């Protein structure tokens, strides 16, 4: 039976509609995510500028609002340079792996009630797995560039992401224990039923560990050792230019958004607001869920910028010490406390 | 390690303090001056573009062509060419300053016994060719009119203390380092 014939079968129209709906959802999510990436760079410069009593971009458009457009046009028309000794296929593949891994995490995040591209029952595990795949992009980029700076940057990134993934996974175990599910939608629903409306309050230790690990996981300041400018020029993407560089850049910002969304869905109550607020201000129930989700997400992204404007980079041994000697014991303690309370209550 | 130190370390108290500071700065007004749009006036006595002082009596430069400015100039950017006039006086044919080589030390202004050369507060004279910035006598006189204007002498006297005004040369002495008469007048 050919594809065309199978489409003629009764009921297949629903299938086509279903696939079309998913493709439409994907298109919307990717478009919105890319728009957010562009303006995340703008607001990063703006927020850090104002925190340093500067102005940030001001020249392109009113208050520099068209700066991301100018940057995109510039990157698009830049010369694409590939080093002579580079491992060409791997060099071409690395940024694509990085961006694809980052984008595919968006598939399981529930942006508001019922809007999730793939409502799979191991959503949390999927995100953790895919964010590790993103590290391959970084390692391969460093390897393929045949530059010592790139390679050192990618090695650092690998070590860092492996160390902090442990702490991050353990910090989420507390949430999984409370929600009893790995599905992100279920986790949000469990939070809505919880008296405080979010898991950040009972899981304060886990939330703290998660926030620090998320910063390290996305290679952001103060844990931006993989791209330590003053030691490694730019780290793993030194040799990349033009659109390939833009792909890495987009992957980094989408990574930030994924970690922000994960914090929102697992700890801050996703698209819901706590019951004690709606009981005082009942009209807030009519605000669509996506608004709360985005407000929380913007706060987490602002937090990334805020940390970057405040802290200098950690030394490598300090980074490892925080990961292994502080965050992992704290996360284990959190699991223990959660388990004891859960057993005691039941 | 005491309990206090442990809490300080575990909860990153110092970092929280730092973040409170950056957040408070986030809501203050930026100190940036957006230069081409917002120009800051040069402070008095600013060493900007050169000018030859125009003598209001004759309408020509005050310069007599003694060449002391060229002699003292550490970057050797001043060239003075003179010839003998009909009454055996010195005539300044060409007075040229290669501005691109100037280090703005203002030693020429200090050296001039007649207060004939000045640095103006004008500093925006970048151009696309070297010739446009190469200063001839005519251009230097024009600079005086443009950038020092009518109030130029008061400004010049106050901030450059030309020897002409503030020092008097003994009649029997061919040197310009004299004693101060009446101190500095503002």
Largest sheet of chain B: 3 strands, antiparallel
Task: Estimate the mean pLDDT confidence of chain A.
Answer: 85
Quaternary organisation of the protein chains: heterodimer
For the record, give the distance between the C-alpha atoms at the N and C termini of chain A, rounded to a whole number.
Answer: 55 Å
Rg from alpha-carbon coordinates of chain B: 26 Å
Kindly report the spatial arrangement of strands forming the biggest sheet of chain B. Answer: 2-3-5
Low-confidence stretches of chain B: 182-186
Overall spatial form of chain A = globular
Helix share bin of chain B? 25-40%
Radius of gyration of chain A: 21 Å
Overall strand count of chain A:
0
- Overall mean pLDDT of chain B: 81
Largest sheet of chain A: none
Structure classification of chain A: mainly alpha
Main interface by residue count: A-B, 17 and 17 residues
Reading the helices and strands of chain A in chain order gives: HHHHHHHHHHHHH
Q: Helix amount of chain A, in percent?
A: 55-70%
Name the poorly predicted regions of chain A. none
Please indicate the percent range of residues of chain A in DSSP E strands (runs of 2 or more).
under 5%
Number of helices in the DSSP assignment of chain A: 13
Beta fraction of the residues of chain B? 5-15%
